Amino acid sequence: MIGSWLKRAWMRIRCANKAVCVTTAVVAVVGTVVLLSGCQSVTPQPSGLSIVATTTQVTDFTRQIAGSAAKVSGIIAPNQSAHSFDPSAKVLLELAHAQALVINGVGLEPWLADAIDASGFSGTVIDASSGLTIVKNDPHVWTSILNAKVMVETIAHGLSHVSPEHAATFETNAATYEHQLNLLQEWAQADLAQIPPAQRLLVTNHDGLAYFVAEMGITFVGSIIPSFDDNAEPSAAEIDELVAKIKASGAKAVFSESSISPKLAQTIAAEADVRVYSGEDALYADTLGPSGSAGSTYISATEHNVRTLVTAWGGTNLPLPEGLSS
User: Fold this and answer.
1) pLDDT tens-digit series, residues 34-54
2) pTM assigned to the model
3) Domain 192-312, second-level architecture
């Protein structure tokens, strides 16, 4: 949720005339940013089409589609949780200027309504999850490559309505990217197919890969955090139950996630006498990694996850197909 001091500052400058209100709000937030940064200057917003996206995944999708036709800003930083997020003054300023906001949807961004209200954003909201089949209100829809392709099409369609003059560019870029996603899906399924289904046993920090698991024929043994929310905490009884499940299933490893502390995963792996994959070997689930990491893009993060799983389960990774760049 938005910090109370910041929300009060925004609400004081709201007025009946929305156009004046947004302009005044931008000036106020610029002043706030200058204050918070030690009176350093604030970079003016560029002219042209400005798009804001929430999660690292939809930000990557949007950048692939927009190309050089628009400036795309991501609200959530790499390795930052989307479940509990407190928008900064800079984020509110970017929202105030944006013509479009691309969101994941499915309740993943509970703080978003307050951020939109506080910023005075009046552009188009594009829900990337529109049209997808949602399982048990699980918001981690992007982990399925099939879903990712639909999300790309949805975003491209939405941006074309926002900026019809760039529609051809958006369609061309989306088609190019979807071709890469097709190659990724074919490679991932072939790589995982080397492992007998009975040995594809997954234990993670939290239940954030359900759509990927279903698509790739993986058995989900359990998660350390018994919730879709990566901020929840397991009880001692739940930890004991998971250790018992690991031993009974024959799972070979516990896989930590890049945005979650590996301490509990390491403890549970030790109790179950299996290997833990953490650090550079951690999986990318809720978030992509920073620039230069193995998971800096959706394609590279998915490739990393598949490579890690196949290796952990005793397989040897297949080469990437020609034309697939991570």
Assistant:
1) 333 344 434 444 458 999 999
2) 0.86
3) 3-Layer(aba) Sandwich (3.40)
